Amino acid sequence: MPLATENRSRWILLGLCIAVAVATALATALLLNVRERQSEAKKPFVALTQVTEDTTDPATWGVNWPKEYDSYKRTALQTKTTFGGHGGSEALPQEKAERDPWLTRIFAGYAFSIDYRDRRGHAYMLQDQESTKRLTKPQSGSCLHCHASIMPLYRKLGNGDAKAGMDATYKMTYQETHAQLNEMGHAHPVACVDCHDPKTMQLRVTRPGFIDGIQKLANSSAPVPQLPSVQQWRDGKRDRPYDPNVDGTRTEMRSYVCGQCHVEYYCSTKMPLTFPWGYGLRARDEEKFWNEQKFPDGSAFYDFEHKETGAKLLKAQHPEFELWSQGVHARSGVACADCHMPYMRDGATKISDHWVRSPLLNINRACQTCHHVEESEIRARVETIQTRNHELLERAAVAVTDLLDAINAAKARGATAEQLKPALELQRTAQWRLDYIAAENSMGFHAPQEAAMVLGESADLARQGQLAALKLETPGQGASAKTAATRP
Ligand code: HEC
Ligand code: HEC
Ligand code: HEC
Ligand code: HEC
Ligand code: HEC
Description:
Blueprint: H1 3-42, H2 58-64, H3 66-73, H4 96-99, H5 102-106, H6 125-131, H7 151-157, H8 162-169, H9 174-184, H10 192-195, H11 208-219, H12 228-235, H13 244-247, H14 250-259, H15 283-292, E1 304-305, E2 312-313, H16 320-324, H17 328-331, H18 336-340, E3 343-346, E4 349-352, H19 363-366, H20 375-412, H21 417-439, H22 448-470, H23 478-484
Antiparallel strand pairs: 1-2, 3-4
Helix pairs in contact: 2-3, 7-8, 20-21, 20-22, 21-22, 21-23
Bound molecules: heme C (5 copies).
C-alpha cells in the first residue's frame, strides 16, 4: 500500500473512532435523559406524607400530589357554556324553572318544585346540598352517598361492612347523618380517597350503591357492548359476583368512578338507596325496573304523587352514566375522564386534569386529541346536537303539560278515578321520559339518537294520554277511552 494512502486510511480510521465515540456519548446521554424523564413520568409519587382509607381531607393528599390537588381545587371556579356550566362562588346557580317553567308544574307536590338548580363544580357539592330548600321536607341520610366523603362513616355504622353502613342511613335523617360525619371530621366533598386506593393510587370505586347496581347489571342479560369486562364475567364461571375493582378494565374504571354518582337512583326513607340497573341502562329498562319494584310493605313503587292529577310518578335524576353508555363514544371506549379530565402536559409528566368541568371549555385537550378538525367545527357539531335536542325537549314538555290540562279538564267534568286510569298511567310514562332527558346534563350530547328517541316517545305517549282524557269529555264515551290508550 503506498504511504500516502496508508496515512489517509489511518486518519479516516481515527476520525471514525472519534465520531463513534461522540455518537455513543451523545446516545448514552440522550438515553439517560429519556430514562430519567420516563421514570419521572412513571414514578407514582414521592410519598412525603402518609395517606390512608381515613384520610378524607384532599389537602393532605395534596402534599404528595400537588399538581392534581391544584387542578382539583379549581372546581370552585365559575364556568359557563350555553347549556352547561353554572354560577360561581358568588351566587347559587340558576333555578332550572326560571328557564323552563313547566318543571314546576310537572313536579307539583314534590320537593323539586320548591328548589331545583343547575349544577356547579365539585367543590360545592356538600354545601349546595346543605342549603337546598328541598331539605325543608324530611330527607334521608343516604343523600350524603354522593355529596360527601362518606366511606369512614359507612364503615363505622356497618361495623366494617360499608354496604350495611349505607343501608343503615336511609332511615336516619339527613341532619343526624351529617352531624355524625362532622363529628368524625369527614365532611368534605368528593375526595381523592373516593376514587383512588391510598396504597397504590390505582383507580377504584368505593360507593356501595354503584357496586350493588353494577352487579345487578352484570346479572342481567342486557347487552353491554360498552362494558366488555361485564360480558367477560358473564361468559366465565360466575362463581363470585362481578367486582368492578377486580374485573373492570382501566378504561372502564375511568367511567365507573363517575358512575358512582352521575346516575338515576332512588334515595328516600322507604327503602335503601337503589340504582335501577336490573334490566339494563336505557330509560325504558330503568322504567321497567321501577314498575316492578315494591316497597317493603308490598305497595307499588313511586317517587311522588302529582298534586294536580293524583298520578303516582317517577322522578329521574342525572342519568349521565346511563345515557353515555348508549352513545358511540362509550362503544368506542371513550371514557368520562377522556373528555372531562383530559391529560395535560407538565414538563415530562402527563397528568390528568382534576378540574372536572364542561369539555367545551377545553376542546383542544378534550376533543382534538381524537378529532383532528378545527375547534370551531367541533363546537358547531356539539351545538347542532344540543339545540336540536333542546327543541325536541321543549316540544315534549308542551305535550306533557297539555296532557295535564286534559286530565284536569276531565276531572272537572266529573271523570272517575277508574276512568282516568289510562291517562294517569300515560302521564307517568311520558313524564318519566321527558324528565330523564331534562335531568341528564349533556343536553343530548352523550347519546344524541337515544335522547331523541326517548323524547319522541315522551311526546307520543303524552298525546295518547291527552286523547284518552279528551274522550272522557262526552258522558257515556268514557269506556272507550280505556282501549284507546295503547302502550309502547
Ligand atoms: C366524548 C366526550 C364526553 C364523554 C365521553 C362524556 N362526556 Fe359528559 N359532556 C360532554 C359534553 C360535550 C357535554 C356538554 C357540555 C356543555 O354543554 O357545556 C357534557 C356534559 C356533561 C355534564 C354537565 C356539564 C356541565 O358543565 O354542566 C356532566 C355532569 C357530564 N357530562 C358527566 C359525564 C359523565 C359522568 C360521563 C361518563 C359516564 C361523561 N360525561 C362522558 C362530553 C363528554
Ligand atoms: C346517586 C348519587 C346521588 C344521590 C344519592 C343524591 N345526589 Fe344530589 N346530586 C348528584 C349529582 C351527580 C348532582 C349533579 C348533577 C345535577 O345537578 O343534575 C347532584 C346535585 C344536587 C344538587 C344541586 C342541584 C339541584 O338539584 O338543585 C342538590 C341540591 C342535591 N343534589 C341534593 C340532594 C339531596 C337532597 C339528596 C337526597 C334526597 C341527593 N342530592 C342525593 C348525585 C346524588
Ligand atoms: C361522590 C359523587 C360524585 C362523583 C364520584 C363524581 N361527581 Fe361529578 N358531581 C357530583 C355532584 C353532587 C355535582 C354537583 C355539585 C353542585 O352542584 O354543587 C357534580 C358536578 C359535576 C359536573 C358539573 C361541573 C360544573 O362545572 O358545572 C361535572 C362536569 C361532573 N360532575 C363530572 C364528573 C365526572 C366526569 C366524574 C368522574 C371523573 C364525576 N363527576 C364524579 C357528584 C359526583
Ligand atoms: C372522581 C374521581 C377522582 C377524584 C375525586 C380524584 N381523582 Fe385522581 N384521578 C382520577 C382519574 C379518572 C385519573 C386517571 C387515572 C387513569 O387513567 O389511570 C386520576 C389520576 C390521578 C393520578 C395519576 C396521575 C395523573 O394525573 O394521571 C394522581 C396522582 C391523582 N389522580 C391524584 C389525585 C388527588 C391528589 C386527588 C385529590 C385531590 C384526586 N386524584 C382525586 C379520578 C379522581
Ligand atoms: C378518545 C377519543 C375521543 C375523544 C377524546 C372524543 N371523541 Fe368524539 N368520537 C370518537 C370516536 C371513536 C367516535 C366514533 C366515530 C367513528 O367510529 O366513526 C366519535 C364520534 C363523535 C361524534 C359523532 C357521533 C355522535 O355522537 O353524534 C361527535 C359529534 C363527537 N365525537 C364529538 C366529540 C367532542 C365534542 C369531543 C370532546 C368533548 C369528543 N368527541 C372527544 C373519539 C373521541
